[in-house]
Design a protein that fits this description.
A hairpin with a 2-residue loop joins strand 3 and strand 4. The radius of gyration is 40 Å and the shape is elongated. It has a 5-stranded antiparallel β-sheet with strand order 1-5-2-4-3, covered by helices on one side. The chain is built from 3 helices and 5 strands, in the order H-E-E-H-E-E-H-E. By secondary structure, the chain is of the alpha+beta class.
């Protein structure tokens, strides 16, 4: 055999060996339909359940609290402009409350109509009937508000919405 032929055969064998080694690295012969079932999600942590203690009503608090006092319109007084108290507790130790009188109507249907429109706008509205000079008036109130600033903000929004001049009232125990 000639020297040139030997070199060609050896070169061909080296190329075939390199092809067998490098070809699997260059090409991916795995099944493309095969699904990888390994997960990258870490294992669940060990969580110890804690016992939740249910709050107990203090013995000093009566079971039948009188919520009607919060809506007693006879105790509402107009806010004085020089009153600088915007929040806090009143003399009885309860939070101060402010209300907004939006309207006063002789016809209950008109008052109910205003109440429903304000309820649709997500305001906390209630209706109370008051006798003034032998006439029965149905007043629409928003509240109670725990901060006078909130009452003022609602007053500005309601006045703009209804083109009226509502009245801010303070609950006086």
């Amino acid at each position: 055999m000639s020297e040139g032929l030997k070199q060609r055969i050896v070169g061909a064998l080296v190329l075939v060996a390199l092809g067998l080694i490098l070809l699997p690295l260059a090409l991916d012969f795995t099944d493309p339909k095969k699904v990888d079932r390994t997960s990258l999600i870490p294992p669940a942590p060990n969580v110890v359940a804690t016992e939740i203690v249910v709050a107990k009503r203090p013995d000093e608090v009566a079971d039948a609290a009188d919520v009607g006092l919060a809506f007693d319109v006879n105790r509402l007084q107009p806010v004085q402009e020089n009153d600088t108290n915007y929040y806090g507790f009143d003399e009885s130790g309860l939070p101060q409350r402010w209300y907004l009188q939006v309207g006063s109507y002789e016809e209950k249907s008109s008052a109910n109509q205003l109440k429903q429109s304000l309820l649709a706008k997500k305001y906390k509205v209630f209706l109370k009937s008051v006798r003034v000079n032998k006439k029965l008036f149905h007043r629409v109130y928003i509240g109670p508000k725990i901060s006078r600033r909130n009452a003022i903000a609602d007053k500005n929004a309601i006045d703009k919405l209804l083109t009226t001049d509502s009245i801010i009232l303070k609950y006086v125990p």
